[in-house]
C-alpha cells in the first residue's frame, strides 16, 4: 500500500508560499504522492494552483485531487486546466472528482447545485473529447497539445448514483475523511458497483485521514473550521483526527486491511515540520 501526504492548501489562511516547499520536502521524505483538498468558498489556495505548484517543485511524486468540485467549472475550461497540470507534471496527475455539496462553492452563474449531477455526467464526455484532442469550439484546433493523455479519474461521494458513475467512468473510489471503520462499507459498495458495471478486476480504493502531530489543538480547530456547518459529519471528522503515532499507525493498518491501494494523510496546519514528523511515523 502506498502512502501519500496532503498539501495544506485548504488550511485557513494558509501561507501559499509554503506549498511548493511542502511538495518538495514530501518527495524528499519518500511519500508516494501529494494531494489537495477542494473548496472555493474558503480562504485557501485553489486545487489547480496548488497542484501546478507541486508539479513544478517535484519530479517523482504522484499528484492527486481529493476532491475537485468539477461541476462548479465550465467543462471545457476545467478539462484544459487539468490537462495542463498533468502535462507540466509529466503525466503524474490522478484526478479525484465529485459533485460537491455546499452551495457557496458554486460561484459561477449557471453552474449552481441544482443539476450538478447531470452536469457531471455530461461533462465527463467533454473532458474525454478535449483530452482526445478533438477540434474545439467549432474551429480547426484542439484545446490541448498533441500527446495529451486521458487523465485517470477517481470518484468520491457515497450515494448509489455516484458509485455507478465511478464504476462506469473511473478507475476507483476515494472515501471521505472518516475513520477507516466507517469507510469499509463504502469500499464494499464501490466494489459492488464495479461488479454490477461488468468491470474486470477491482477498483482502486483510496483512504483519507487527518493528522496533527505538532499543535494538536490548533489542528483540530482548523479541521472544525473547515467543516463548520456539516452537522454530525463535523464531529466525526474532528473526532477522527490522528494526534499520536499510535493512532496514525492504526489508521494506516486499518485501511490496508480494507484493501486500500493508497492512504493520504492530510495535514491540519501549514507547519512544514509536520512532514518530517509524519515521515518518522509511517515511512
Layout of helices and strands, plus pairs?
Elements (H helix, E strand, L loop, with lengths): L1 E5 L11 H12 L3 E4 L10 H11 L4 E4 L2 E2 L5 H15 L3 E6 L17 H16 L21 E3 L4 H10 L2 E3 L5 H17 L7 E8 L4 H11 L5 H8 L5 H13 L4 E6 L5 H10 L1
Parallel strand pairs: 1-2, 1-9, 2-3, 3-5, 4-5, 5-6, 6-7, 7-8, 8-9
Helix pairs in contact: 1-2, 2-3, 3-4, 5-6, 6-9, 7-8
How does this structure look, described?
This protein has 283 residues and is an alpha/beta fold. The chain has a single domain, classed as Luciferase-like domain (TIM Barrel). It is built from ten helices and nine strands. The protein has helices spanning 18-29, 47-57, 75-89, 116-131, 160-169, 180-196, 216-226, 232-239, 245-257, 273-282; strands spanning 2-6, 33-36, 62-65, 68-69, 93-98, 153-155, 172-174, 204-211, 262-267. An eight-stranded parallel β-barrel has the order 1-2-3-5-6-7-8-9, surrounded by seven helices. Strand 7 (172-174), helix 6 (180-196) and strand 8 (204-211) form a beta-alpha-beta unit. The longest helix is centred in the middle third of the chain and has 17 residues, at 180-196. The termini are close together. 46% of the residues are buried. The model has no long low-confidence stretch (mean pLDDT 95).
